[in-house]
Structure formats: C-alpha cells, structure tokens
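Fold it.
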Amino acid sequence: MDKLNQYRVLIEEILGKYSEIKLSYGEIEIYPFFDRERDHYQIFEAGWNKYTRVFGPLIHIDILDGKIWIQHDGTEVGIANELVELGIPKHDIVLGYHAKIMRQYDGFAVG
C-alpha cells in the first residue's frame, strides 16, 4: 500500500472511532464525512442542547501535497498525536490551525 492510501486508511480509522461517540448532553449526533476523491475528512456534530443549536466540526483533516493537514482539532488528546502513535512521521503532519509563522515551533511540518 502506498503512503497516501495508508494515510487515508489511518485517518478514516481514527475518525471512525470518534464518529461512534455518544455525547452525554443534549440530543446531538456525530457524523463522519469522508470525501476520498478530494481527500477531505471531517467529523461534525449536529443537534440541540436544550434550546441551543449545536452544529460544527469536531475534526477536519485534509491531505494536501502528500501531507496530512489538520485544519481543526476539537479533541483532548490531539489527532496529530494519535497519527504519530500509528507510525505517521511528524514531518508529514501539518497543524493547519496554527499560524504559519508559529508552525516552526510546534514540532510538526510547517506546510
């Protein structure tokens, strides 16, 4: 399996785990969204917490130019850390939610 296909499989494996989480508050569903053609992967939540509408991404990952770009990470552990534990090198992971000038300090790829 080539590198990009391995990355796709691992991303879907991790996000699949998050899509099975049942939140302990409100009537909120977790939805996986995988666009394999364009390499966009998301987990988002939608529903109601009492009278408040809840909708938005929990995790958003893209594969761009052979690197994994974490665009949004609403987890406690950190998706980047989970990817590293699965064997993906830090130089292939970009924390896209960090400003470009700050990426040189986060220990991952700068872009």
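The chain has one domain: 3-105.
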